[in-house]
Design goal:
By secondary structure, the protein is α/β, with parallel strands linked by helices. The chain has one domain: Rossmann fold, CATH 3.40.50. Helices cover 43% and strands 17% of the residues. The protein has helices at 39-43, 68-81, 94-105, 124-140, 145-155, 158-161, 164-180, 183-195, 231-237, 253-256, 258-270, and strands at residues 3-6, 9-16, 21-25, 47-51, 87-92, 110-116, 209-214, 241-246. A hairpin with a 2-residue loop joins strand 1 and strand 2 (9-16). The chain is globular and about 40 Å long.
């Protein structure tokens, strides 16, 4: 498997397809698997750069403190090593938070930016969610039914979970969590989301930006409580941005509405 070494840590990547570059950044626990429902279509139109963040998937998993800036620095270093000077970026959930830091700190790397179901700062409810995830992971394990169920019931809508696909999705989530990170890395990632404040980064993003979220996302909602900053705030604070809201959708538009997600993202990137 191709990889680059960042200060002794191997970062896995894979490039597939032809066209403009498109880097995909997955969410906490899911790594590049996050894009399984959309990657084949994107590869028909873009040169898709799949990779796993430090700590995840096929990359090395050192026990360390993690932050959005750590991961953003890794991405900039990785792109430099593989000779990519500019790319579209699509980050979802925690990957969207990393994408915010990347676009603010390394603006020359970014053509267009897509942020899905992210947050610039967690409110108390979101922080409680992530503390609970840490507790379950430490006591039941990353591949436990308890953790997969907790995450699924926060990320997916009631309507979707009541379908056969929804029921199968819980096992799908369980498999991704079990194979893509350790308890220590997952806990540190949760801490990174709890502690982050990306609000100062938003005005520094110069790339045209698409912000997406489901209208019933309870994990990283359109509007956080007063102590947080959700997706609507992100779109309002990035100078050249637009907001797209998926109707009757939770935190995982790529799973619940993959065709609509593909259409919305491609129209934005190709405009």
């Amino acid at each position: 498997m191709p990889s680059v070494s960042l200060e002794g840590t191997n970062i896995w990547y894979e490039i597939g397809g032809e066209g403009p570059n498109l880097l995909q950044i997955g969410g906490a626990g899911f790594a590049h698997d996050n894009f399984a429902n959309v990657v084949d279509d994107f590869r028909q139109h873009y040169s898709v750069i799949d990779f796993d963040l430090r700590g995840y998937g096929n990359s090395d998993r050192p026990d360390q403190d993690y932050s959005m800036e750590t991961w953003a620095d890794d991405i900039a270093d990785m792109l430099g090593q593989i000779g990519i000077t500019r790319t579209h970026v699509h980050g979802t959930s925690m990957g969207g938070m990393v994408a915010i830091k990347l676009a603010a700190k390394y603006p020359d790397l970014i053509d267009k930016l897509v942020i899905g179901c992210a947050a610039a700062k967690c409110d108390r409810t979101a922080r409680i969610h992530f503390e609970l995830w840490k507790f379950i992971a430490r006591n039941a394990g990353m591949d436990s039914e308890e953790l997969a169920t907790e995450i699924s019931t926060k990320a997916l809508t009631r309507q979707f979970l009541d379908t056969d696909q929804g029921k199968a999705s819980i096992e799908h989530v369980r498999g991704m969590l079990g194979r893509n990170c350790s308890v220590n890395v997952f806990s540190s990632a949760c801490d990174a989301m709890i502690e982050m404040d990306l609000r100062p980064d938003l005005p520094n993003i110069s790339a045209p930006t698409l912000v997406m979220d489901g209208d019933v996302d309870v994990l990283t909602p359109l509007d956080m409580g007063p102590d947080g900053a959700g997706n609507r705030y992100i779109a309002e604070q990035i100078p050249n941005s637009e907001l797209y809201i998926f109707k009757d959708c939770g935190h995982t538009n790529l799973l619940e509405y993959p065709e609509e997600s593909i259409d919305v993202i491609r129209r934005f990137l190709d405009a």
